[in-house]
TrEMBL record:
It comes from Paenibacillus taihuensis. It is an enzyme of class 2 (transferase). This is Circadian input-output histidine kinase CikA. Residues 241-462 form the Histidine kinase domain. In the N-terminal section; belongs to the phytochrome family.
Length: 745
């Protein structure tokens, strides 16, 4: 029991040291490295001296205490210098106490050596050293017992061996690892807290630096945002100005072409005007996309879903590229599978844009031969139909290496191609994006010098729209037609088109079949349509034989040609052929051509009167209406004025907003067409002043401007105008808008 009390007293001293270690160790770590072992030795010396003040027994000249604990701890934690300091100091203190000295001092030296060995092992083993600390404690207790047994006087030795040998050895084996663990954990806790403090300080430094960086970045972002907003504003103003400047001449081209169509023109002149209108409208649609700010920013194009005539699209493609093709002596050939529906639901302009890009490339890179257009059905389902379009040429071709660079921005197959043929290479990229928007894919098959074949697919919906007017179709109802065509697909397509007009169609594949039908069977036909190919020289003699031998049985003979070559038409010297039609032909074009051919035969006066009455009454409300045009451009003034005069409208013109206000003050108008950007006074200010005139508060004011930027319509309505029309405009659209407002008024 007395020994346990002594053990508790020693433990209290160590615990006190551990408690004080929280303040001692930080000071210890701030000392120079050379001073740290000395301080450690002095600290453990103090612990040893304090322990020696409470000996367990003083009998027979013994001074029984556990000073060796301070020696081993000094060595393990402080190293050789520390244990040297502690051993020397405690040894001197023991010398000063007198008595038997060999065993006390000898055991101190051995304990010091054991502690140095323990320090070396700790340096090498690290954490594993903790498991073996009890062995060093046991060794110290054992060596003390051996010193007493061999080197102490007999009386002291006997007394020690009887009362303390076992307890001293056990004490050191248990107490030393326990005290080591307490001190070691406190030191680890200190380092953990110190590491956390360092991390915290470092984190605070990082946060401070990051905060400063973010503040600087935010300042840069604010400046960049302001610069971007200014750039966007400048870009918007530039696009608005470009929109106005580009649309103004386009409006003049479309308007003057419309007026030109109303004059007496030759057949070829009408075709030129039609092609001019088609080109101008396509250019206008492209300008719309280029100048649409939201589409430029978001890189998105919205596809329309409208009913359209596929043959009309193909006919327009032929019209647009035929001049260049004919100048180079190329032939255009169209082949359409008979299962391809004529009426579809989709975006005809985007389809035309892709086809036009491929056909322009085909004509551009082909010096001789032909360009072939093939349309077939790829897939069909209840939801819609996927068509496959192929444009094949006999041009320069593309190598396999060059094909890898296709469909990339501003890239052509070869830079020499750009120098020779021009172009940016952007067309195929646009085509690829449009085809993907239409749910299809695009590809090419080509070899150098062997021509190219570009193929793409596109999805369309099933159309339920009417192909032609039932009212006008009655004039040619039950027309008897003989169709002579060797090409099975072409024969089925044309037969289907003619039967939709409620014609009675008889089909023949060769001239012999025709003679059999007309001569042997005595059949009579109002119309004979012959397939005319460049290689089929028998078509003209057959037509002349039919007309001469069976003239009473045949009224009209027409040639249909899938090779769009006007030289064939010019080289045609036969007065029996009344018309040459180019395949494919839209329903409306085919019907109009037939109406023109048979007008004097079948188009009755009652039908003509009904049609004229229908056309005359379409915009009857516009007759004698008083309209003020506010426009500063002379060409636009002329276009709008002449278009409106065609509907017997009374037109007055003001060149700017100030003049418009004065004219309105003189007398009222039924409608005011107001330009927005004008000198002296713009359309916005003019509208606000006109609204201040009592009798003009509710006069319809329609904005007509070439500015197609987003936000203009909102500004127009906010200024007090009633509607917004973008130049270039469709005359029929303007007539409809004017009639709606005049009738409402």
């Amino acid at each position: 029991m007395e020994f346990l009390i002594y053990f508790a007293q020693c433990s209290a001293i160590i615990v006190t040291y551990v408690f004080l270690l929280r303040w001692i160790y930080p000071f210890f770590e701030r000392l120079p490295v050379k001073m740290q072992p000395i301080l450690s030795g002095l600290i453990f010396t103090i612990i040893g001296v304090v322990i020696m003040q409470k000996p367990l027994d003083l009998t027979h000249g013994l001074h029984m205490d556990v000073r060796h604990v301070s020696i081993i701890l000094s060595g393990v934690f402080g190293g050789p210098i520390s244990v040297l300091v502690t051993t020397v100091c405690i040894g001197l203190y023991r010398l000063s106490m007198g008595g038997e000295l060999l065993t006390p001092l000898g055991s101190l030296v051995v304990t010091a050596l054991i502690s140095v060995a323990a320090y070396r092992i700790k340096q090498r083993r690290g954490e594993a050293f903790d498991k073996y600390m009890w062995l060093f404690g046991f060794a110290i207790g054992l060596q003390i017992t051996l010193w007493f047994y061999f080197f102490s006087p007999d009386e002291s030795s006997s007394y020690y061996m009887k009362h303390f040998a076992a307890t001293f050895t056990l004490f050191h084996a248990v107490a030393i690892p326990l005290y080591y663990s307490l001190i070691s954990r406190e030191i680890k806790r200190f380092w953990a807290e110190e590491t956390l403090v360092q991390y915290k300080d470092h984190l605070e430094e990082l946060i401070t630096a990051r905060t400063s960086e973010l503040v600087a970045n935010n300042a840069q972002l604010i400046q960049a945002k302001k610069a971007a907003e200014e750039a966007n504003r400048a870009k918007g103003e530039f696009l608005a100005n470009m929109s106005h400047e580009i649309r103004t001449p386009i409006n003049a081209v479309i308007g003057l072409s419309y007026l030109l169509q109303r004059t007496e023109l030759e057949s070829m002149q009408k075709q030129y005007v039609e092609k001019t209108l088609i080109s101008a409208k396509n250019l206008n649609t492209l300008v719309n996309d280029i100048l649409d700010f939201s589409k430029i920013e978001s890189k998105k194009v919205t596809l329309e879903q409208v009913d359209f005539d596929l043959y009309e699209v193909l006919s327009q493609i032929s019209n647009l590229i035929s001049v260049r093709a004919y100048d180079k002596g190329l032939k255009l050939h169209f082949s359409i599978h008979h299962e391809v529906p004529q009426m579809l639901v989709g975006d005809p302009f985007r389809l035309s844009q892709v086809l036009l890009n491929h056909s322009n490339n085909a004509v551009k890179f082909t010096e001789e031969g032909e360009v072939l257009f093939v349309v077939s059905v790829a897939r069909r389902s209840e939801r819609g139909i996927t068509l496959k379009f192929t444009v094949t040429d006999t041009g320069i071709g593309i190598t396999e290496e060059q094909q890898k660079r296709l469909f990339h921005e501003f890239s052509q197959a070869d830079m020499s191609t750009t120098r020779k043929y021009g172009g940016t290479g952007l067309g195929l990229v646009i085509s690829k994006n449009l085809v993907e928007l239409m749910g299809g894919t695009i590809g090419v098959v080509s070899e150098a010098g062997q021509g190219s074949s570009f193929t793409f697919t596109a999805k369309f919906g099933h159309s339920t729209g009417a192909i032609y007017s039932m009212h006008t179709a009655k004039a040619l109802k039950y027309l008897r037609v003989l169709l002579v065509c060797e090409d099975s697909d072409m024969r089925l397509v044309l037969k289907g088109q003619l039967e939709q007009f409620q014609f009675i169609v008889t089909v023949a594949e060769s001239g012999e079949d025709v003679i059999e039908l007309v001569y042997t069977q005595g059949s009579r036909f109002d119309l004979v349509i012959l397939d005319w190919k460049p290689t089929n020289e028998a078509a003209i003699p057959l037509a002349e034989r039919i007309k001469h031998e069976f003239g009473g049985a045949v009224q009209v003979i027409v040639l249909v040609n899938a090779y769009h070559d006007p030289e064939l038409t010019r080289s045609l010297h036969s007065n029996v052929i009344e018309k040459v039609l180019y395949y494919p032909i839209s329903h409306s074009s085919l019907f109009n051509e037939l109406m023109g051919l048979f007008q004097e035969h079948f188009f009755t006066s009652q039908a003509a009167a009904a049609l004229e009455g229908e056309q005359a009454g379409a915009f009857a409300a516009l007759s004698q209406a008083r309209i003020l045009i506010v426009e500063d451009n002379e060409i636009n003034q002329l276009v709008i004025k002449e278009i409106l005069h065609g509907k017997h409208i009374n037109v007055e013109v003001a060149e700017n907003g100030a003049e418009a206000v004065e004219r309105v003050k003189q007398h009222p108008f039924d409608v005011i067409l107001m330009d927005l950007q004008m000198p002296v006074m713009d359309g916005y200010e003019a509208t606000r002043r006109i609204r201040d005139i009592p009798y003009a508060m509710h006069t319809p004011i329609i904005a007509m401007t070439a500015d197609a930027m987003k936000g203009v319509e909102e500004q127009v309505l906010e200024a007090g105008m009633d509607f917004y029309v973008t130049k270039p405009f469709d005359p029929m659209q303007v007539f409809s808008i004017l009639q709606r407002f005049i009738q409402r008024k």
